[in-house]
Amino acid sequence: MNFASSLSRRWAMSRPSHCRSISNASPRLSATPAISEDRSNVPASPSPNSHFKITLLRSPISLGARIKGTLVSLGIHRRMQTVYFPHSPEVAGKILAVKELVAVENVPSEAVRTKTQQRHERKASRGFVVIGGLKDRLAELSPPPQRSRGSAS
Amino acid sequence: MFGPFQLSRVNLGGLLWKTPWRMSRTRKANQRARLKKVDAVIEAVRTSGVQCSALTEALKLPKEHEMPPRDKYTVFNPHVPGYRKGIHKVPKFTRVTMRVNPKGF
């Protein structure tokens, strides 16, 4: 305990003032929840599954324009791509047309992710979060001058 | 000629592209796993509660555990003696559904 606190003090003193403040907390790491006193298992009521989660596992190469067109109409362009669709008979028919190539899961609407969101979730965390920098320090010391709007220049 | 198969008198004379008449046990295991995956897709569409004619047709297909081994690993062919042929001889058999064969064959 003492060893750790003395280390942090030394680190604070030796660090030059122009260094960015960095915390070790990563927003992607989930904090372990404290053990609750209440031991009863109360599962949260799950929201109903309203969407298909479709992942292409097998290629449509040499299966013909029909199957390829079905996958394109589902918005799938490459293997291992995942798309989400709300439940509907049209999408169900398309899935069954390519049932040998895809994996399907029923998910609630909270689980739906766009392409950008999926990409963001795939990214590895940097291991740190920037909580401040030189700009913030200067702003603290001397607030930025108020610019008058509409002045003739 | 181009490609890996270089024509020559020797290899044109004999049986070169040999495929065993039956699938090995590994291939059969993989075939069963593929059938189960398709079953899972049909099941997922069924549990979604959506109704469509494609689903009605898909539900008529037998599940992997309901299929006799003969139907899992062989397929009807009118040209061969016995009217049955290894399913691995069908092009794209890993990505095409061929579960039902004509009755009696």
Automatic annotation (TrEMBL), chain A:
Location of region: Disordered: 17-49
Compositional bias segments (type: Polar residues): 20-29
Pfam short name (any one): Ribosomal_L30
One Gene Ontology term, aspect cellular component: large ribosomal subunit
UniProt KW Nucleus keyword: no
Residue stretches making up the Large ribosomal subunit protein uL30-like ferredoxin-like fold domain: 52-102
Gene3D superfamilies reported for this sequence: Ribosomal protein L30, ferredoxin-like fold domain
InterPro entries: Ribo_uL30_ferredoxin-like_sf, Ribosomal_uL30_bac-type, Ribosomal_uL30_ferredoxin-like
Name of the featured protein: Large ribosomal subunit protein uL30m
Organism: Rickenella mellea
Source organism, top-level taxon: Eukaryota
Keywords noted in UniProt: Ribonucleoprotein, Ribosomal protein
Gene Ontology terms describing biological process: translation
From TrEMBL, chain B:
Protein name: Mitochondrial 54S ribosomal protein YmL31
Keywords of the record: Ribonucleoprotein, Ribosomal protein
Example of a GO cellular component annotation carried by this entry: mitochondrial large ribosomal subunit
Originating organism: Rickenella mellea
Ribonucleoprotein in keyword set: yes
InterPro entries: Ribosomal_mL60
Organismal lineage: Eukaryota, Fungi, Dikarya, Basidiomycota, Agaricomycotina
Organism domain of life: Eukaryota
GO molecular function term, any single one: structural constituent of ribosome
